[in-house]
Design brief:
The complex is a heterodimer of chains A (about 325) and B (about 260).
Chain A: E1 3-14, E2 17-28, E3 32-36, H1 43-51, E4 58-63, H2 72-78, E5 79-82, H3 94-102, H4 111-117, H5 133-145, E6 151-155, H6 163-178, E7 182-187, H7 190-196, E8 199-204, E9 207-212, H8 214-220, E10 225-231, H9 238-241, E11 246-252, E12 255-260, H10 264-274, E13 279-286, H11 289-297, H12 304-313
Chain B: H1 18-32, H2 34-51, H3 68-99, H4 101-106, H5 112-142, H6 150-174, H7 178-195, H8 207-215, H9 217-229, H10 236-256
Helix pairs in contact in B: 1-5, 2-3, 2-5, 3-5, 3-6, 3-7, 3-9, 5-6, 6-7, 6-9, 6-10, 8-9, 9-10
The chains are: A alpha/beta (about 325), B mainly alpha (about 260).
The structure holds adenosine-5'-triphosphate (ATP) and magnesium ion (MG).
């Protein structure tokens, strides 16, 4: 597949602050490419250089074979952008904004359909200044897609959306991708990256730490399982510590926490069954993308709380390993 | 949710989007209320105030037999043009820049030229409405004659609008914040209005002041309008002064225009 976006040795400073310090990556046609990293890592600066809003100090960028600085007219037709901090005039109505922006493009999408899809139809005659944060965000997503772009760069796609709107937006993005639109997604949400992205670049202090698939990233952190349960009767730890797949057994009140490799769950449950011990409230925790993120950047994602809420909703837990 | 893959039929037929942009900006201008109240309302109120002063309606030898009110109609037109151009326009644009509206627009195929043109179109349209309102009220309520050289008058108004808008655009393009833009616009407004004869009619100014007035954007405008009111074409130099300001400052504004 041909590369849609190529960034080579990008460097950008603001005065003394080095925001981007040698970033390179390639985005293939039709993929959803995630950019993940802690606050101030240089994500927004990187994508704004790709959009042509900022002039890089050094390095080369090509988007659909175009130079973001030189070929602005062509680039803006083909590249949809959601800014982290864009805005519209307060007294502009939602419907007017969509109609106006669609008039800028040669072959725009149907703005009414887009308005429906983003759940804004009932807000058509509401002024921008009167929208809630999540509604503004949805309008901003609609405006990014209104020119029927071949590539969309979405900075903080679902920040500020409620869980339902977030899921709807993910669905929308998947639909957009299925039409062949290439998508670059800057995000803080592990669940979002895991669900949507084909590949993820982890950026920290202006450098790309790694580029890999979500599964590949989680595999990079040591694969260890934690098994947690309440035994129906007390038992001798030696029953489990003797198993080759088990690395540790810890008691926390009446809960037992067993750590081990991929096969540990199998081994533990069969030993317990043989000894007529029932494992109540059995839970298995696996290394998550968040663990990978923490391991790679040494930092928790900033929006951890929200991410965890989403995680809890999915019934997943994290190991909390450093 | 599903996504429509078909492109919508071109609703406006306007490929450039300039028409829709100008209409949208006009709506916003009206919704903001500040522009209509100051730029349109205030000159009309002043006209009514001046019109109710008896001495304003007596012919004056200084003005070649014209009444003070007749002299003030072009001054009020200049006043309205200046308010729109120096107060409303820079504030709107600098506000857009501050809020990130311009950043958002910059990611679309709309260039600065189209954006600035839309602003100009709106302001010229509003100027025309104000001019017509002032002329009609002055004629109907106070018997002030309509311009005796209508084509010359229209040309004068257009040149004046272009001239002042260029000053306003230059302020908007270079000022950092909406507040600075407003402050600079206001600072320019008063001396310009002075030289346009708001306080002392140009004809009554001492020689040196009158010469300066001839070279200012508004002074040249008022004199061109006065000539057209009296039935003459605007002077070449009056149009030249206005065209020079419009061209030089307009180009500088487009060149220096900052999105952020
Ligand atoms: N216009 C600017 N002027 C000066 N410094 C800036 C500017 N924009 C960004 N920076 C600095 O550059 C660094 C990278 O910022 P950037 O916005 O790219 O980070 P980010 O990864 O997008 O962060 P976040 O997750 O918070 O959005 C930060 O240290 C920031 O303070
Ligand atoms: Mg950012």
């Amino acid at each position: 597949m041909p590369a849609v976006i190529e960034v080579r040795n990008l460097h950008k400073s603001y005065g003394d602050t080095v925001a981007v310090d040698d970033v390179s990556f390639t985005v293939q046609e039709g993929e959803i490419f995630g950019i993940l990293g802690p606050n101030g890592a240089g994500k927004t600066t990187t994508v704004e250089c790709v959009e042509g809003l900022r002039r890089p100090d050094r390095g080369e960028i090509s988007v659909l074979g175009l130079d973001p600085q030189r070929d602005r007219a062509e680039l803006t037709e083909a590249l949809g952008v959601q800014l982290q901090d864009g805005a519209l005039p307060d007294r502009l109505k939602v419907g007017e904004a969509l109609a106006l922006y669609s008039s800028f493009y040669r072959a725009p999408a149907d703005w009414r359909a887009l308005m429906d899809e983003l759940g804004l139809a009932s807000k058509s005659s509401t002024m921008y200044g009167k929208l809630s944060g999540g509604q503004k965000q949805r309008l901003s997503i609609a405006l990014a897609l209104i020119g029927n772009p071949r590539v969309a760069v979405l900075d903080e796609l679902t920040t500020g959306l409620d869980p339902q709107a977030r899921r709807d937006t993910w669905q929308l993005i998947e639909d957009v991708r299925s039409r062949g639109v290439t998508i670059v997604l800057v995000t803080h949400f592990m669940e979002e990256a895991e669900r949507l992205c084909d590949r993820i670049a982890v950026i920290d202090t202006g450098r790309v730490v790694v580029v890999d698939t979500p599964a590949g990233l989680t595999e990079r952190v040591q694969t260890e399982q934690r098994i947690r349960f309440q035994p129906s009767v007390p038992f001798d730890d030696a029953l489990l510590t003797g198993l080759p797949d088990v690395t540790g057994v810890v008691h926390r009140g009446d809960v037992v926490v067993v750590t081990g490799n991929d096969n540990a769950l199998n081994a533990v449950t069969s030993v317990l069954a043989r000894n007529n011990i029932v494992a109540q409230r059995l839970r298995v925790e696996q290394a998550s993308l968040e663990d990978a993120f923490v391991a790679l950047t040494g930092r928790r994602p900033e929006t951890e709380q929200h991410a965890n809420q989403g995680r809890a909703a999915r019934g997943q837990a994290r190991t909390g390993r450093k | 949710m599903s996504v429509t893959t078909t492109a919508a039929p071109r609703a406006t037929g306007s490929r450039s989007g300039l028409g829709r942009l100008a209409v949208t900006e006009l709506r916003l201008f009206i919704r903001e209320r500040v522009g209509p109240i100051w730029g349109v309302g205030l000159p009309l109120v002043l006209l009514v105030v001046f019109g109710s002063i008896p001495s304003f309606k007596e012919p004056q030898r200084d003005f070649g037999g014209a009444t003070k009110l007749e002299i003030y109609v072009p001054v009020l037109i200049a006043f309205s043009i200046a308010l729109l151009a120096l107060s409303s326009l820079p504030t709107v644009l600098a506000g857009y820049r501050e809020k990130g509206v311009l950043r958002r627009l910059r990611t679309t195929p709309v260039g600065p030229a189209r954006l600035l043109t839309a602003q100009l179109v709106v302001n010229v349209a509003v100027t025309m409405v104000t001019v017509i309102a002032l002329l009609v009220v002055a004629r109907v309520a106070y018997g002030v004659a309509l311009p005796k050289q209508p084509a010359g008058f229209v040309i004068g108004v257009l040149f004046a609008a272009a001239d002042l808008q260029a000053v306003g655009l230059f302020v908007a393009a270079t000022a950092g914040s909406g507040r600075t833009a407003q402050a600079v616009g206001t600072l320019l407004f008063f001396p310009m209005m002075f030289f346009a004869g708001l306080w002392i009619p140009i004809a009554q100014m001492p020689g040196p002041l009158r010469s300066i007035s001839h070279g200012t954007p508004l002074g040249a405008a008022v004199q061109a309008l006065l000539r057209a009111s009296a039935g003459h074409w605007p002077n070449g130099w009056q149009l030249l002064v206005m065209a020079a300001y419009a061209l030089v400052l307009g180009l500088a504004a487009a060149k220096l225009f900052r999105w952020e």
